[in-house]
Amino acid sequence: MKTTMEGSAEGKKVYKLVLTGGPCGGKTTGQARLCTFFENLGWKVFRVPETATVLLSGGIKFSDLTADEVPQKASDHRTVFKDGIPEHSVDKTASCPRCLAAAADKPNGSEAYKFQENLLRTMIQMENTFFELGKSCTRNCLIICDRGVMDASAFVSKEKWDRMMRTNNWNSVELRDNRYNHIVHMVSAANGAEAFYSTEDHACRSEGVDLARELDYKSAAAWIGHPYFDVIDNSSDFESKVNRMIECVCQKLGIDTGDRLLTTSKKVKFLVSELPANSAFPAFQDFDVVHHYLQSAGPRVQARLRKRGQNGHFSYIHTIRRPHLHGQSIEVKTQLTHRDYLNMLTQRDDAHFTIYKKRRCFLVNNQYFQMDIYKEPGHPRCKGLILLETYTSLSGDKLKGILPKFLNIVKEVTGQPDYSMFNLSLKEDWSNTKKFCYSLHDQDEGEFRANGHSQKMINGKA
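That's the NadR/Ttd14 AAA domain-containing protein sequence above. Prediction below.
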C-alpha cells in the first residue's frame, strides 16, 4: 500500500485527486460515490467544480468566441460548429472543454485561445483555494478535482500548448506531477462497454463510438507521466468499475477496505531484453529518475529519496517502508521541497549505490505501463537492465494479452529478489552482504539473510 500527500505534524492528510475520463466513463457517478465513501470514513471532502462549467454558465457563449469561424467537418475529429456554437450543444452555455479547446486551436481562434488561457488561470486559482482550505481543515481531507489542468492539453496543438506554457511561465512537471497526488482516468464506455455507451442524456455529447474512443485515449494520454496514474477500464460491470476506482484511491492512501470492495489489483514486473526504437512506442513521456537509499532508524525500516523530472524541472519524494501488523508492507510517501531534499541527502546510506534510471511511461490496451531503463553509474549487475511494471488484477494468459507486443519480454519477475531495487543498489556482492533481501512476499515479514543466518526485516518490494 502506498500514500503520497501533504500532512501536518499531527498526521492529518490532505490528498489532491484528479478524476477524469472519456465520454460516458462514469466520472460523475464515481465522484459522488467516492465523496460518500470518504465522508463515511470521517474525512472532509471538497469537490472542485469543472471550471468550464462555472465560466460558461455565467453567460459566456461559444458564439461570442467563434462567430467568424469556418464550420468544421465531423471527419476532422473535432467539434462540428453550427451558427457559431457546437452543433451538439442543446444549452448554448453548456460545458464542453473539448469544444472550447478545438475552437482555440483553429487558425483564427484567437479569442477562444485567450479564453482557454484565462480558463486555465481560473482553474489553477480555484484549485488553490480548495487546496488552502484543505490545509486549514482539522480533519483528513480529500480534494476531488473534476478534471485537471492537463486535460486541456489533449485537444490543443503542441505549438499552442507550448506557447501557453511559455507565456504563463508554466511547465508540465509542476502542472502534472507536483500539483496533484493522484490521477484516476475512467475509460469511456465506448471502449469495452459499447452496449452501455449513450449520448441521449448529455447535452454536450454526440460522439460516435469510434470518435469517443479517440477522445478517451487523448484524455488519458494527457496525463501520461504522472507518478500515480490509474486507468479504470471496462473489464467488469459498472458497479465493480466504480468500486475499483474507490479501491485504487484507498490503496494509495493506505486505507484498509477489508472485503468491502473486493479488488485484487497488484503490481507486476517483467524483464525486457532490449529497448526498441522510439517509433515502436505509442505516445510516451520520458523522465530522469534518481534514487538514494537513506540510513534508517532501525533494521525493520527502509527509507529512500526519489528525484524525478524532465527538462530541468523535478519533483521530490521521501519514502518510508514499514511492516504492517498483518504482514503487508506500508509505503508512506511524502512530497518534498528541493531544500528538504538536499537536506535529507546528507543521510545517504553508503552501503548502496545511487540508482539512475530513465523511466518511460505509456498506455497500451487501456493499461498504464512504466518501464525503467537503468543507467550508469551503478553496479555492473544493473548494466542494460530494463524492467516493465504495471498494476493489474489479471493473471495467466489474460495478463499476457495486455502486455505490449512490441517489447521483447523475457519473463515475469514479480517478487523475485534479484530484481528488487533495494538489492540491485547494494554495493557489496550479494554473496557477501548481510543486507540482501531474499523474501519479498512472506506472510509475516520478509527475511534478510547472510551466510546461512537470517534476521527478520521488512516485507518490502521494489
